[in-house]
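Write out this protein's structure.
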Amino acid sequence: MLSDSERLSTPTTALFWAKTGNNHSPTHGLSLVQHMLDAGSVAARLWDTWLAPGLQRRFSEHLHLSMEDTRALVCWLAATHDMGKATPEFTCQYDRQENNEYFSAYRKRIRQAKFDLPHNLTVPDKSGVHPHNKYSQSILTHLLTLPNNVEGMPSDIAVTLASISGAHHGIPAGYFLNPPERNILILEQLSPQWHAVWQELYDITVERFGATSALQQLAEHGHPIPVAVQFCITGFVIMSDWIASNPDFFPMGTFGSAEQEQRARIGWQALGLEQRWTAALDTSPDTPAADLYASRFGWSNPTLHPMQEVVVEAARSMQSGGMMCIEAPMGQGKTEAGLIAAEFLAQATGRTGVAFAAPTQATSNALFDRVTEWVKYQTNNVAQEHGEPVKPHSMFLGHSKNRFNKSYEELAHVQTFDEQLYPEHGNDKKTLPPDTALARHNWLSGTKKGLLSSFVVCTIDQVLMTALQARYVMLRHLGLASKVIIIDEVHAYDAYMNQYLSSALYWLGQMNAPVILISATLPADIRTHLMVRYAEGLKVRTDSSSPQTKQNLSSRERYAARQARTQSNTILDLDYPVIHTLTAEDNGTPKKWKVEQPAEQTEIELKLIDDSPESVLHVLEPLANDHGCAAIICNTVGRAQEMHAFLSEQFGEEDVILTHSRFTATHRAEQEEHLVSKLGKKAHYSEADGEDSSRPHRLIVVGTQVIEQSLDLDFDVMITDFAPVDLVLQRMGRLHRHDSRSSSERTPAYRKPVCYVRGVKTFGSQDKIPRFPNGSTAVYEPMILLSSYAQLLPHFDGEPIRIPADISPLVQKTYQKNGPSEIPEAWSNHKDYEHVKRDYQQNQDHAERRARDYLLRPPNADQDTMADCMKSLLHSNDRRFSDEQIGEAKVRDTDASLEVIAIVVERDRKDDSENVIKSYRLLPSINGTDEADSLRFDASADDPPTYWQSMQLAASSIRLPYQYSDTPNHCLEDGTPRFNAALEQLDEERIKNWKDSFVLKRQLILPFEEVEAGVYSYRLCDYELVYTTQLGLQSIDPKNKN
């Protein structure tokens, strides 16, 4: 029993609970006052050792407080987040649950202390349940406006402060408008005894964390907390709460006041987070740029591209951070330049990490190893310079298939970052071996917390969802605002996704989070629009420094002003390569840094061929008797599969590879590894070695857009379906890609780079408008295809494309919106062109309108809280999909589709009424060298597969074809949505023991049967799904079978 002097509060306030114990000792929980102090103490340690100094400064600037007072306020907000647990509804919540006798002690304590428990405020019906965070917000708002607590606190400022506690469960309390508003009624109907508890909790936390001065200053200067700061501080409070709620760090029990410091210290040590990453690049203007690159990438006496030199010069000028946009051709080292710029900007702005976002899982996987190597070189170099041991840092691969990435899985996965620092815990924790630079921290895992790691490589979805009205978006704001954000291949995002990207840039600009955009082919109007949106956010600090903080403009007026700025600034500028920077010192006006054009230009011929397979065969004729590697890029999976089948008959299956998105994750990884080993930089061909060369004697790769986006491959000749000009240029970047390859490695017929273009139904000319196959117009906007074709007309007539000189003119003229038309006059007068142009504008407008449904838009003049910006919260009523899956679908404008695990099954058909799965196994590997055949399972077994086996099975995931997407257009003959019918059918096929597997539970299977050697089939609704390791997944409509 604690003495009065040791108690954290009065005995009455100590009755209120925050955490229950386990089922064996449910009443051995944690008091509310203890948890509040724990959360505040965690916040203090996070502030002192983890939170980026640049973000601390941004908080201080926006709050108009000193750093000391800002720290005190943030810790107090973390401490008071659970104030709403001191309410009848929370305290007695087990009254409305079955089997609540174990928890009756909590209720009895309150009753015995004579607290009034009005029935309407204690046991609401289910539809009217109030979350305790909503009570927290109303209680704190009330307390902050009492003169005895804070003199003259304006109600709007009190609301913005309290709204942070109100949102600590990831959804603003103001979003829940469930009547009756008991969060208000408790203030009016409950006895003074309740009010005394709230006041005591307020007094304890204010005194403990020293927030009196900060609260009084906020009341006096009258500046509400900007919504962007609310988001980040709320994320910080959520993080503090989650750590303080973990009994492994902060055990249950009763602890005295003298134990608080030790409890906080031991809890923090048990968590074992890393020390902050600190960028330490040599910023002296006298240091040659080449030395900087050498120190970070292990290059020996490097010869830099001019662009890489200019990036260093530009980054040195950005003393207060801002945005940089790097536009340069493929193969010029933009990734390395972006990382060097990131380290400059991290130093300038006090950021403690880097997030690198790419369009797809494949591109992020390809980037992961490069970013990992950079971190290791940087970390080791800094340690050597200072004569210190290597300081480890956390790393996260941010996409849904990260567990199947070998490099990510090979990173050490630990519970604490330094065993020597925490001897109290013995050797029961996974710790790091000495000199480890990177690891996965156990706590910083999963989709919600992964972005809090120091270094993140992710798909663009993780950045776009910063602008999505979704639960726990606050953690994304905190994670990204603490870092420098690099966004690769910016040209790859359509009008819909750009709505989310531009809004995300606005929010990042508000927190002065440095952003680096990278692209080989970026239309000027898109670049200008993105920079304008970032500048609007960046200027909030300037706008909010005076009493006239809020622009009295409607959202429509602000949109019109933005459009006017964008259009006035979008002048057709053909400088390329080029760097643009945007900083607060330049008043948010982009500054251009010219890059010297390389003296030598690569000339590539562009030749049109008809769309027949025979034309492809004619181009590849030299391969019949000579060596060489060819790429055939198709716009659709169907076209790629047909071409693969045709060429396999001509050249043999061993020399033709098919790659596209409709292979299982395992098979795609095998393909990528195989292709890089055969066609990457390290693979070479020599006539002396012939077929024993590391580069194949003959190889034809047929694929879809996956070839253009991710893999560092080099082809001797290329045949591509016609596509938008920027994508054609991207694809051409894989043609004669590696300068280190000698001409003797290429067969004489292909020593001059030529890109052949097919996939045009009717060739065009100055007098004749072209026509394209339906598959291409379904994938790409017909208007952009026409505009691209118009720009390429001279090159189809024999004028070679010069790389990089022609890249900018081709792209800018294709996508130019506000300048003179670049379309031949004969086309512009054609009725088809007018139709396509009208449809294009309608599609753009429609995409932008759809994106706004769940877009986290900037607050208007009368919007003060997060709830004001989150009135269309995205959440999944349909538990077939996680919130993360729903979010990814929303930011990409894709229909929900089913992902399944493809397996081979054997069925028990002894009884006609039964057709149950008897056993199952993995699909064989592409090369037939793995252990798939040995992984056979009894479907009726009691125990699920082991963790390792479950991972192997989960890696056999594949997304069903478009016919099964959740859209009204795809229905069975009776009108039933095919998506629903497929889900119902596959639901009946589940493996029962998978429900007991952490990895496999809730996973659907695609139960193929082997119908002939290497051919696997399953009838799903009205389509036959067929899978082979050569062709991947095919959907065959039986009605169309010959």
